[in-house]
Amino acid sequence: MKYAIVILFSSIQLVLSAQQFTLPNLKFTYAEYEPFIDMKTMEIHHSKHHQTYVTNLNKAVAGSPFENKPLSKVLLNVSNASDVIRNNAGGHYNHTLFWEILTPKTSSQPSELLLKSIEETFGKLDSLKTKMHQACMSRFGSGWAWLIVNEEGKLQVTSTGNQDNPIMDVTTERGIPILGIDVWEHAYYLKHQNKRNDYIYAIWSILDWGVISQKYEDALKDPVLVSIKSDNWPELKAFHKVMSNTFHAAEKKDFKPIFDRNQELMIKAFLLKNSEIPVLALEERLLIMKSLEKLAKQTIELNSFISANKKVTNGVIMKKLTAIHASFHEVMGLCKDE
Ligand code: MN
Question: Does this model's pTM top 0.90?
Answer without folding.
Answer: no
